[in-house]
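user: can you give me the structure for this one chain? tokens are fine.
assistant: on it. calling the predictor now.
[tool input]
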Amino acid sequence: MSCAMSIVRTIRILGIDPGLRVTGFGVIDKAGQKLAYVTSGCVKTKDSDSLPDRVKTLLEGIAEVIATHGPAEAAVEKEAEARSRAEAKARVLSFMGVDLLDQNLYLRVT
């Protein structure tokens, strides 16, 4: 009788909850059906900053998380309905930023 060994690959995943004021993130490791918490936090911007500066702050913050924790994949939360037009615009800008990260840092974004 042989003992079959199963090799389970661990995938590190970055989850992003985009927002213009606060973008939340969480990092987990997935090995088969098991999930393990790695870290979580948020990147905050200042209301007084210009829109380009806020987007830059968010991109730099998420880029730092990626550099520190090295996820192979990323998932972005999609909210069914934004509370206001401004919030909808902020979400779109955040998604665009994640797309830029995908292109520049070679993450698979789902």
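assistant: here you go. The first helix runs from residue 51 to 69. Helices lie at 51-69, 85-105.
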